[in-house]
Amino acid sequence: MTIRLFWDRNRRVHLGSYPLERLARSDAVADLGACPTMRPISFFRRQAPQSIVNAMAEYQAMMDAIRDGLVAKVISDYPDDPMERAIMWTISEWRVNAVG
Fold it and tell me: Which residues are within 8 A (CB) of 6 and not within 5 positions of it... i.e. 6 or more apart?
């Protein structure tokens, strides 16, 4: 059995499960210069050929291809008027819902 740290029965849904509004706020900007620089991840462990890390290179490449997807070579035109843009979006959504 777990101990409940926060009772959220009367809490509004849009506020989330945890009372983050109770956290102390700070106006100071975080010093990101102290963070280490990013290094590329190596998915090869030559000293341990049976390691699952060696198989992760293919998996990561597949996930990158799915996440990035095919990129259009041209930039599409869109209306400057927000109302016209909303109408065009509604029409395209209707077409997708009608077909699928």
Answer: 17, 18, 19
**Tokens in use for 2?**
């777990």
Rounded CA separation 58/66 (Å): 12
DSSP 14-25: GG-SS-GGGSPP
The answer to whether the CB of 40 falls within 8 A of the CB of 50 is no
In this prediction, residues 64-85 reach a mean pLDDT of 81
pLDDT at 45: 85
Q: Is the pTM of this model over 0.90?
A: no
**φ and ψ at residue 63, rounded to 5 degrees:** -65, -35
Q: CA-to-CA distance for 35 and 33, rounded, in angstroms? A: 5
Locate tokens 């077909």: which residue? 99
CB 44 within 8 A of CB 56: no
